[in-house]
Amino acid sequence: MKEEMERMLGFVLKHYRQGAFEGGIQADAQDRRIRSFPIWRYVAAAAAAAAVILLVFLFRPASSTLEYLAVNTPERVELPDGSIVTLRPGASLRYSDSKDGRNVNLEGTALFKVARDENRPFKVNAGESVVKVLGTEFQVKQSKGNVSVDVFEGRVLFSGSEDGVILTSGMESVLQQGAEAPEIVEVSFPNPTAWMTGVFKYDGTSLDTVLAELSDYYGREFVTSPEGQDRVLTGSFFIDEDPETIVDAISSALEINITVK
């Protein structure tokens, strides 16, 4: 708008003649009015048009949908509302914000730390499930058509096509593929966010639980002989180690055999 005004004023100055806009011998009042009015009318019209364009630009609604993707490493993103989301590699997320609330469509696994806003609920849509919160920390995981939710802080409402369940800190629930409502289950693994921390940590954990978690994470089935099922393990392993190296270390420490099926 500033450039348009300067251009129009430059036009006026370029064509200005001494006495053209003043009273005097060279022009009477009526002639002065006729010759001067159109120029200022155009200037005013141009200024008004520029103002309208500026207002349209300032108040034009921007796209309210944002997309995020994690490829080879966990991706930590901050959403416009201040919430923090960490995506597991291979996960994708679409976020939209409106007066009715904050909405996320998730594919894969993600850890959420939601900024509290009681007037605008935060909803995560994953598969056939919906997780609704006001402000909390939780993980949503999709695997083999199932959706599971682990809550680390606060409270969430986890639902399928029918009524849901309320989950609080330390609780886990699973919506099985084809089920209408989720079920509360015992916490499956001691390291649900190992994909993000990079470490498996065990402190007096039963070997069955350790092997079940490693099997789930690496997509390979590790089993032990009957005499090893009552053993417990204390130790830690980096997730980027070869899984066979990990189970070999466990076998040596506990003096048992572990096989891969």
Do you know the CATH architecture of the largest domain? Answer: Sandwich
Strand proportion, as a percent range, falls in 35-45%
> Averaging pLDDT over every residue, what do you get?
81
Order of strands side by side in the largest beta sheet? 1-4-5-7-8-11-12
Rough shape? Answer: elongated
Residue share in helices? 25-40%
Largest sheet: 7 strands, mixed
Q: How many structurally independent domains?
A: 3
What is the highest CATH level, the class of the largest domain? Mainly Beta
Descriptive overview:
This protein has helices at 2-14, 29-59, 194-197, 207-218, 243-254; strands spanning 65-69, 75-78, 84-87, 92-98, 101-107, 110-113, 122-126, 129-133, 137-143, 146-153, 155-159, 165-168, 172-175, 183-185, 199-206, 222-224, 232-238, 258-260. With 261 residues, it is α+β, with helices and mostly antiparallel strands. The protein has three domains: 2-59, no CATH class; 65-185, Jelly Rolls, CATH 2.60.120.1440; 194-260, Phage tail protein beta-alpha-beta fold, CATH 3.55.50. The strands form four sheets. Strands 1-4-5-7-8-11-12 form a seven-stranded mixed β-sheet, with no helix packed on it. Strands 2-3-6-9-10-13-14 form a seven-stranded antiparallel β-sheet, with no helix packed on it. Helix 1 packs antiparallel against helix 2 (29-59).
